[in-house]
Amino acid sequence: MSQPGGARGQRLDPGVFRLPVAKIRAGYYSDAYFNHTLKVLARDRYHPRVLMQVFQRQHAVLGGIDEAIAVLKLGTKRFADLRVHALYDGDAIAPWETVLTIEGDYGLFAHLETLYLGALSRRTKVATNVRRVVEAARGKPIIFFPARFDHLAVQTGDGWAAHVSGAIGVSTDAQASWWGARGIGTVPHALIAAYGGDTVLAARKFAEHVDPDYEITVLVDFENDCVNTALAVARALGPRLWGVRLDTSQYLVDRSMVPLMGATPPVGVTPELCRLVRQALDADGFPAVRIVASGGFDATRIARFEELRVPVDAYGVGSAFFTGSFDFTADVVRVDGRPVGKAGRWERPNERLERVD
Question: Per residue in 153-188, pLDDT tens?
C-alpha cells in the first residue's frame, strides 16, 4: 500500500479525543485481569521496568495511534516517566511490524492495554479499507458514508482514520471534527419522499436553503429512472448542480436498462447505467455535472469499474469500510533490561518509530 502525503510528522493533541480520564484511570474500561495485575504489583511493592511492544499480523494502514498515545498520556498520572515511541496514523505497516513501544514502570500503564489496543484495532481496520478503496479508484474522490452502519460513538475516530487514508469527504460533522471540517452529502431520498417523491422539487428546495457555495449532489434513483431524473434535475438547477448520485438498489433494474436486458438482469448501479447517464447529460449540455456511484461498492467493484473506464467521477462507500479484522497484540519483551517474552515473541526493533514527547 502506498504512503499518504501530509499526515506523517503530525499528531493530534490528546484533548481532541475527549477521553473519560477519571474512568480510564480507575480501570472502568480495562479488562479486569489488568486491574488485578495493578493491585498485585502495588501490594507487592514491585516496580518492574518493562519494554512493551505492539504489533499486528497483516499488511495494513495504521490508524488509532494518536488515540492510543492519548490513552497513555491521560490514563497514567506520570507519563513523563515513560518512554514511548510510535509510528504515525496513515503509515503503511507490515505484518509483525512494531508500531508502538512503551518503556517504564509497568505499574504506570498496565491497566491501559485494553484501551490502546482497541483503538488501534478499530481505526486500523477502517484506515486499511479506506486506503484499499482509494487506491482502487485511481485518484478519483472517495466519500466516506458508513455512519449509518455503526454506533455513533465510533464516528469521530473512524472519520479521522478515513481522512488520513485518503477519503476526500465524510458524511457527518462528528467524523470531520478532528481536523476542523464538516460533513458533506447529497439531497437524500427522505427529503425527496417528503416532497411527494418529486426529486426536482426537493432539489430546488435544497438549493434554496443551503449555503450558496455548497456543492449540491442529488440522488436520482428515487423513481428508478436515473437518466430522465438526472436530466430533469440538471435542467432545474443549472450551474448550482455539482453532481448526480446513482444509488439504484441491487434488486432493481433501472428503467433505462430494460432495453439492454439479457439473460442476466443488470441490477443496481452498473457500468452501462453510468454510461447512459453520462451520455444523456453530455448530449443535453451538462458535461460539467459529475456522476457519483454508490450502493454496495468496495475496492474490488471499484477496481472493475476503473478497468472498464466507466464514467464515474466519485464513489460513495459505506459498510465495506468495516470488513476484516486487524487485531493488535502487546507483549512485554524486556524486564529490567533482560530479554523476557512468551515463546514465539521477541523484541522487534523498528527504526521508523519516533519518540513521543
Answer: 999 999 999 999 999 889 899 999 998 898 988 999
Contact 16, 71 (CB under 8 A): no
Q: Left, alpha or beta for 129 (phi > 0: left; psi -120 to 50: alpha)?
A: alpha
- At residue 169, the pLDDT reads 87
Nearest partner of 294 among 272, 268, 275, 276, judged by Cα: 268
Residue 335 in grid coordinates: 524486564
Q: Does domain 129-322 have CATH number 3.50.50.60?
A: no
β-strand pairing of 354-355 with 290-294 = unpaired
Q: How would you class 201 by CB atoms within 10 Å of its CB: exposed for 0-12, middle for 13-18, buried for 19 or more?
A: middle
How far, CA to CA in Å, does 243 sit from each of 2, 29, 268? 29, 44, 19
Band (265; pLDDT cuts 50, 70, 90): confident
User: Could you tell me where in the chain the CATH 3.20.140.10 domains are found?
Assistant: 14-126+325-355
- In CATH, the number for domain 14-126+325-355 is 3.20.140.10
Q: Say if CB 304 and CB 36 are below 8 A apart.
A: no
Give the pLDDT score at 6. 42
User: From CA 304, how far away is CA 315, in angstroms rounded?
Assistant: 13
Q: Are 192 and 219 in contact (CB under 8 A)?
A: yes
Specify the pTM: 0.90
Q: Give residue-wise pLDDT tens across range 84-133.
A: 999 999 999 999 999 999 999 999 999 999 999 999 999 999 999 999 99
Q: Give ranges for CATH 3.20.20.70 in the chain.
A: 129-322
